[in-house]
Design goal:
single chain, 259 residues, alpha+beta, Fructose-1,6-Bisphosphatase, Chain A, domain 1, D-Maltodextrin-Binding Protein, domain 2, 2 domains, eight-stranded mixed β-sheet, five-stranded mixed β-sheet, 8 helices
């Protein structure tokens, strides 16, 4: 039993409940609102966020909360829940079944545990610092592939891609040096897929804390590595993320940092 077991169990319960809400709503997404040209939000985003916040704040009233849809309940508490109530909103809005609920917990500024639930596949990934990573109760590990040319990688693109073309240059470089590159539309699930060996690596720019808080714990506890593009340790408040099985990490960073 780990130090954060009680928090982890609470997280599992609430992400499953939120995930079931999303699964029921995916066929009728309802009204869609736009925060930008391509950045959208659905009613289910806010319903899921309200559900998670109400459950956890009732159970842990002294904790901080930070979430994507404008939730900033921050008072410099010892614990902070950082979550995305619906990671993969564009997929959800188009009824493309790749989305999840992602919930991470920080303790004194350090990642303590994380849970990600994919309701369409009924896959729950979770990890506690020092306790390993799991998928539906089974221990998971990163892959053992050590050659970038034989690696399946994943990436994503920021919502301002039409203005900045961020990541296009890096995507083109990696595409020519890897076995394949996938763009699934959910950073949290991409991280989980690195953790369980479906991907060898993942990179993305302009991410937010709720995109990576839970998944970073899962990757590291599965034996992988998470850093920024320069190799500094994971910081969920830094927008650049590289995650890998550790074996192709340097090679991936080398390509990303080409002039």
């Amino acid at each position: 039993m780990g130090e954060y077991e009680g928090y982890l169990n609470a997280a599992k319960d609430v992400v499953r409940e939120a995930g079931e809400l999303l699964r029921k709503n995916v066929r009728e997404t309802g009204e869609i609102f736009f925060k930008g040209v391509v950045n959208l939000v659905t009613k289910s985003d806010t319903e899921s966020q309200d559900l998670i916040f109400s459950r956890l704040s009732a159970r842990f009233p002294d904790h901080d909360f930070l979430a994507e849809e404008g939730l900033r309940a921050l008072k410099d508490a010892e614990f902070r829940w950082v979550f995305d109530p619906l990671d993969g909103t564009t997929n959800f809005a188009h009824k493309f079944p790749v989305f999840c609920v992602s919930l991470g917990l920080e303790h004194q500024g350090r990642l303590a545990c994380g849970v990600i639930y994919d309701p369409m596949r009924d896959e729950m990934f979770w990890a506690e610092k020092g306790g390993g990573a799991f998928l539906n109760g089974e221990r998971i590990r990163v892959s053992e592939i050590d050659d970038l040319n034989k690696s399946l990688l994943a990436t994503g693109f920021s919502y301002d891609i039409r203005e900045t073309k961020t990541n296009i240059k890096q995507f083109n470089r990696i595409l020519l040096r890897a076995q394949g590159v996938r763009r699934c539309g959910s950073a949290a699930l991409d991280l989980c897929y690195v953790a369980c060996g479906r991907f060898e690596g993942f990179w993305e720019m302009k991410l937010s804390p709720w995109d990576t808080a839970a998944g970073s714990v899962v990757v590291e506890e599965a034996g992988g590595r998470v850093s920024d593009f320069q190799g500094h340790p994971v910081n969920i408040y830094h927008p650049e993320v590289v995650a890998s099985n550790g074996l192709v990490h340097q090679a991936l960073m080398d390509v990303l940092n080409l002039p």
